[in-house]
Hints:
Blueprint: H1 18-22, H2 25-34, E1 37-40, E2 45-48, H3 51-59, E3 63-64, H4 68-74, H5 77-82, H6 84-90, H7 101-110, H8 115-119, H9 122-136, E4 141-143, H10 144-149, H11 151-161, H12 168-182, H13 191-215, H14 221-232, H15 242-273, H16 275-283, H17 288-299, E5 304-309, E6 313-315, E7 318-320, E8 325-329, H18 330-333, H19 368-385, E9 390-391, E10 398-399, E11 408-410, E12 412-414
Parallel strand pairs: 2-8
Antiparallel strand pairs: 1-2, 3-5, 4-12, 5-8, 6-7, 9-12, 10-11
Helix pairs in contact: 6-13, 9-11, 9-19, 11-15, 12-13, 13-15, 15-17, 15-19, 17-19
The structure holds protoporphyrin IX containing FE.
Amino acid sequence: MTASMPSPARLSYDPRDPAIRADPFPVYARLRDEDPVHWSPAIKSWVITRYDDVRQVKLDADMSSDRLTPFFRKLPEAQRSVLSEVMRYLNLWLVFRAPPEHTRLRRLLATAFTPKAINGLKPNIEAIVAERLDRLEGCKRVDLIEAFAMQVPALVIMDMLGVPRDRLKELKAWSDQMVLFIGSARNVPDKYEQARDGVHRMSAFFRQLIAERRADPRDDFISTLIAARDETSEDGKAGLSEDELIACCMLILFGGHETTTNLIGNSALMLMRHPAERDKLRRSPELIGKAVEEFLRYDGPSNSSARVVARTHRMHGVEMREGDRVFVMLNAANRDPRQFDRPDVFDIERDPNRHITFGFGSHFCLGAALARLEGQIAVNALIERFPDMRTIEDDPPDWLDALIMRGMRRLPVDLM
Ligand code: HEM
């Protein structure tokens, strides 16, 4: 901790507190008003909650997106050795990189995320959504996360990458092991070992699949990336290395389904809690574009993103020292009354709606158009098929730790 930090006694943000997990917005309101540059002893990090400050941190040259290297350096030797393979791949994820590697990796990956490529996925998304909803016909009580919200994005991204659908269960299990390390504040005793196992299995899986696609290319994203790697790597600079290729596939698979699962799950819950808005959307399904922007703002799936202070500097008079970890709380910024009119009102027609759920600046989410399209198709079809779906009073939603991800482990519903 730095000498100039405020006393933590008054107000302390702890994402592991169950009350904060269920509803983080009251503490976000206090943080924005009383302590916008807050030191949280619970997560040993700065917590930034105002909209303008979050944008500034995202753009600030005094902040770095490479938060893994300093974290790894500080670990005791035994833990470093457990995490060495995790670091080998995660270090190559563009979300953790800075220029010039970030620029090169992003340019290569962006070739697969053109508006034309994303629009081309629409018929497949519609078919997956319809088929998963058909399976729910005749069911009464289900966990909506397991039965629908998780399935749709996972199958969409697997089809896009060219991963056989029958591997869903394994990929989900490996991804769950990784999420403990990447996106949660939970103190699971063996979380580093689990992350190691998840990364080991997933990277081995993609290494094998890449070898198969190299021998027998198909019309899928992995084959496109292999071509990008093989065409440009002759000068040894422009293309992707084999490890980078594997890491990209892991990032797309991981980033492409965890967050979108939470978008669909959170949206369903918001509509069940606001039946008048749900009925309005059913009557006017063409509002879905604006409605998804409000789902993203009001209780969006990316609670925060992390940075590291690259150079000691001050924010609102508070000194942030080189190496300190910083969480910019996107969901807190999205309810900032300095930016949004009536921020705590859920309004599916809100306009303007400049939420920052997909980030801001050079790391702006590459999959934003895909996530929006999936959200629009999945939510409209869900409320059309099960208009009276309800939460269950004695079996409430089970929220994930409210740190990086914002979503539910379980959302039990009565389909009616
Ligand atoms: C609702 C769903 C989604 C949300 C809320 C979301 C949110 C975000 C955020 C906040 C970032 C920036 C992180 C940072 O600055 O540290 C990001 C980056 C990224 N997202 Fe997403 N994402 C979603 C869906 C997707 C999907 C579907 C894909 C891919 C298929 C994807 C791929 C990526 C990639 C590759 C990056 C890294 C971009 C870079 O560092 O240049 N995301 N996302």
